[in-house]
Records
---
Amino acid sequence: MSPSSATFNLSQQEGWNEKLKNRDERFTLFVPTNDAWADIRRTMPSAYKKLFMGLFAYHVRNILERHMIANSAFTLEDLLSLTTNATVSGKNIQQHRLNMTRGKVYFQARVTQSFGG
């Protein structure tokens, strides 16, 4: 995540992003774009303000963990064929169906930071 991204700023609440440095774990994080956050800001300004003010880290953690697939390393081909995922929810792994736009998953692959992996 880029330090200029809204998601990166949210991930710093209560040190949530520190878990990404664990070399014994594998994570795939689908990072909402700044455009996605701008849409939330426009359509749900009160919710946006509460998330970004830093007082509701519990909700931020839940949102970010719903965008994370844990304990697996994926190739692009794997991701394209994926229809369900395991997301982190506290200490539990929960299965969720991936929501797709008209049956397609769109990826914009880019590595902005690597923790030596």
---
Amino acid sequence: MPGDRSSMVRDRKKIVSLVLCVLLIASNSVWAQEPAAEGTSLLSILSAGGLLMVPIALCSLILCMFSLERAMSLRRARIIPRPFVKRILEQLKSGELEKREAYRICKENKSPIALVLAAGIRRWGKPAQEVEKAIVDAGERLGNKLRKYLKLFNGISTITPLLGLLGTVVGMIQSFNTIVITGAMGKPELLAAGISQALVTTAAGLTVAIPALIAHIYFSSRVDKLLMEVDEHGQQIVQAVCGERVNRLKRRQTSQESTRRAA
């Protein structure tokens, strides 16, 4: 049944969003752990990882903020309000709306898809190719707006592992230098402690990078689906307001008036 299928799609989207939120929360759990038996806390983790833990923690905060922003901005109800799209398409196909009234309705709605539809309605009565070009241009501008901040997620997923690796290399160098200076070559526990501290930055970098990569993939897919739906509705506008159809409607109305007068 169509209703069951739509409800399944909504449930699937909710599950994906929940998983993403859980991963984002998990990425920040490193910074918010309660003191453990060994005294592990936020300050001890930062101090163990060194200065490079600061930009990694900053990337984690940025990731959470912009993930929430994109999740709110890319809601389907905001980009493509179903009642508005259904009403204006039905009225255009039935010939109930004129150019000025249809354009006014789109401008008053102010949703992203309304701006795309308004671009096509502005070419009312023009050849189908010209109307379609206006729709495509407006769709490309909308796509650029919807893809805002997606490069940020990709950048975080690329940079944070490198920062973690750099922190590990620096920590290893410092650890070996300390052993050489103190003459503790026969004490492997000191070397193990230094390596353990050095690996903290790598773990932290991966903890932030993995959710960032997932967020980039998820939101990119979300944008592509929204743009495909916008394009489908745009093609319906092309068929409804192109010059070929407008002329057919005029001829039909003229024929009906002539028949009515003759009767």
---
Amino acid sequence: MKLSRQTALAVAIACGAIAMVSAPLDAAEEPSMMQPGKWQSTTTFSKIDMPGMPPQVAGMMKKMMGRQQSVSYCVKPEDIGRPGPDAMGGKNAKDCKYEDWSYNGGRMRATIVCKVKGQGTMRMKMAGSGSPTAYNADVDTTITGSKMGPMHMVGKVSAKRIGSC
């Protein structure tokens, strides 16, 4: 269960961070993707695959599907477009890098890769739509290099600004 919770939290935090860096290249043409303030991000997984997992772990994973994993975080004005590794992948992540990202006309797309302590490498793709105060996206995450073997998760994330920090 520890692996599942840490992984879910890392994915939820990474989803919020991807939206932070999805600000347009020319802020004069379009408002930034996220307004500074307190945000809440909720991720729900619809598919979790882990080939070769023990039956008891498979049962726990199936119970996780459909459950919402929420995380709140503060987006400071200086964070827009420049979140650090902790924001990208959670407290156990390091060496986070964006393979690609874009935000045009309210549509966002991103791929982030992080090394997650004790869990291998997380590669997450996200595509969706958003405004300065909310976003919704589909998430496809693969984790490799874990002691328990590879993991693949598919889900949705939604987030909204809920106030000031």
